């Protein structure tokens, strides 16, 4: 990446030098101070969110041609238009509002960060890159502890000791072929696997004097040796795409009416340039009208949502249907996850009770935070009524799923004291220090909980750690409360303080 930035920097400098002076202007050599100012300006431009988008978000899927075109753009308006068209060109169903390719791409990044981090973000690892570009493999042979394994006959046979390794098999990959196999080895025993084309690399005894040696190769097997090299040359590269012209025009007639709707948004960083905005909507069943049919009662809510920049440029549109199958169900909850770059946006949501005809509207600003690399940061602090692990095939996908956990926010933030309060928050670039939890009663300031824990036992790695806890509420009297966390990174002198409010209601 550093080399690419250097190339862009040199091209920018060459362009600046190559411009001829205006007819009425005499070119003067820059002073040392002016040169430093110019260099700082160029460096700042190269570190913009657009460069992060290019070198992080789409690093593995942007083609060389697209990268050259993107680097040749002269202003942010052109870059915004390019990014919009970048995703539209890859949309498999351009006639629908959803861009399945984009959603799947960011799901893969989230999965890679969750499963393959090893001191560096998961998307930077070889397994992460493979997963992001090709998706989940059809088969995985995993040996996380290494140990004794049987050498194949073409490596001499017998048993040997192996480093931790994984073998991923894909039945078919476009542009590569069928029965594609990638092997990853962790020779440092640190959890960081790297891709290899040498089947002997996982053999921990390969370089000892008594290790079995592979048999001599003939002309045919010599030719076969080029196959792994060809596979490695194709590994992790962007696929060629078909360019098409697409344009989406979305209009809506929003009417204010009487359907109560609660909305909350939580932010979960995926990369420094892309943050998941989890927009959750909740409807109380008592506010809905049910339609009786065939002895069954059902309520249906039509949803329309639109996210725009503050200048009203459309960023994302979503439409969906929420169904409630029984009046005994207390509420209906729906969540939409949208990847956004840091910055300020506006969200508009309209909902309609299909049976009763009542509608609701919601409008608010979305201030998407910046998650800087190597700086302690936290996601939103989510107060949940459901936290449970999800099957491996559903990691990072579906409503309420964050990484490997289903986290359903209690949008109203109202809990009974016979319930438990779920706490979910992700910490980034955290050198384990301490985490303090404090609950105080609003109005009186009375503390009802105050304890500190050592963070070294938390799930995750330094690049990302997750706090998942259940707090019993049986000792809390009805009323409003505030939960505050103090996360301290003592090594770097950094601190973050996520907080959330909730209310204990009468049973």
Structural class: alpha+beta
Domain count: the total is 4
Low-confidence stretches: 1-27, 213-226, 241-256
CATH topology name of the largest domain? Immunoglobulin-like
What CATH architecture of the largest domain would you give? Answer: Sandwich
Mean pLDDT figure: 80
- Judging from the principal axes of the Cα atoms, what is the shape? globular
Q: Please describe the biggest sheet, giving its number of strands, its sense, and whether it closes into a barrel.
A: 7 strands, antiparallel
The CATH class designation of the largest domain is Mainly Beta
Output the radius of gyration.
27 Å
Quote the distance from N terminus to C terminus.
57 Å
Total number of strands: 27
- Fraction of helical residues: 10-25%
Number of helices: 9
Tell me the fraction of residues in β-strands, as a range: 35-45%
């Amino acid at each position: 990446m550093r080399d690419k930035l250097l190339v862009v920097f040199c091209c920018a400098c060459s362009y600046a030098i190559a411009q001829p002076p205006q007819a009425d202007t005499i070119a003067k050599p820059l002073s040392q101070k002016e040169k430093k100012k110019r260099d700082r300006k160029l460096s700042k431009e190269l570190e913009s969110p657009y460069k992060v988008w290019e070198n992080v978000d789409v690093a593995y899927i942007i083609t060389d041609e697209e990268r050259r075109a993107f680097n040749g753009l002269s202003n942010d308006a052109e870059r915004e238009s390019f990014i919009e068209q970048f995703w539209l060109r890859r949309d498999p169903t351009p006639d629908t509002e959803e861009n399945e390719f984009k959603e799947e791409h960011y799901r893969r990044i989230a999965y890679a960060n969750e499963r393959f981090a090893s001191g560096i973000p998961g998307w930077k690892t070889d397994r992460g890159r493979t997963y992001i570009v090709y998706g989940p493999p059809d088969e995985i042979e995993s040996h996380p502890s290494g140990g004794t394994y049987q050498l194949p006959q073409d490596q001499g046979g017998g048993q040997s000791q192996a480093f931790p390794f994984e073998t991923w098999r894909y039945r078919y990959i476009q542009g590569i072929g069928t029965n594609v196999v990638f092997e990853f080895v962790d020779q440092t025993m640190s959890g960081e696997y790297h891709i290899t084309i040498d089947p002997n690399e996982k053999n921990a005894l390969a370089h000892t004097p008594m290790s079995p040696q592979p048999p001599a190769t003939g002309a045919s097997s010599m030719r076969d040796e080029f196959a792994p090299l060809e596979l490695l040359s194709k590994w992790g590269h962007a696929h060629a795409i078909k360019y098409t012209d697409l344009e989406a025009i979305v209009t809506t007639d929003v009417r204010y009416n009487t359907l109560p709707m609660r909305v909350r948004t939580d932010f979960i960083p995926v990369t420094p340039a892309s943050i998941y905005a989890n927009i959750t909507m909740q409807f109380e069943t008592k506010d809905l009208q049910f339609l009786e049919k065939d002895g069954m009662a059902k309520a249906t809510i039509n949803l329309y949502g639109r996210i725009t920049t503050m200048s009203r440029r459309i960023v994302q549109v979503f439409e969906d249907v929420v169904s409630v199958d029984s009046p005994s169900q207390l509420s209906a909850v729906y969540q939409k996850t949208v990847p956004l770059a840091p910055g300020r946006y506006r969200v508009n949501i309209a909902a309609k009770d299909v049976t009763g005809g009542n509608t609701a509207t919601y409008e608010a600003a979305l201030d998407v935070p910046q998650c800087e690399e190597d700086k302690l940061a936290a996601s939103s602090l989510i107060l949940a009524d459901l936290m449970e692990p999800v099957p491996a095939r559903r990691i990072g996908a579906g409503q309420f799923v964050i990484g490997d956990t289903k986290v359903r926010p209690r949008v109203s933030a109202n809990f009974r004291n016979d319930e438990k309060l779920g706490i979910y928050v992700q910490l980034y670039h955290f050198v384990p220090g301490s985490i303090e939890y404090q609950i105080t009663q609003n109005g009186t300031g009375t503390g009802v909980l105050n304890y500190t824990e050592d963070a070294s036992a938390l799930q995750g790695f330094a690049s990302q750690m997750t706090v998942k806890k259940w707090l019993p509420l049986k000792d809390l009297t009805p009323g409003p409360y505030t939960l505050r966390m103090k996360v301290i990174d003592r090594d770097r002198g950094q601190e973050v303080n996520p907080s959330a409010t909730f209310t204990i209601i009468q049973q």
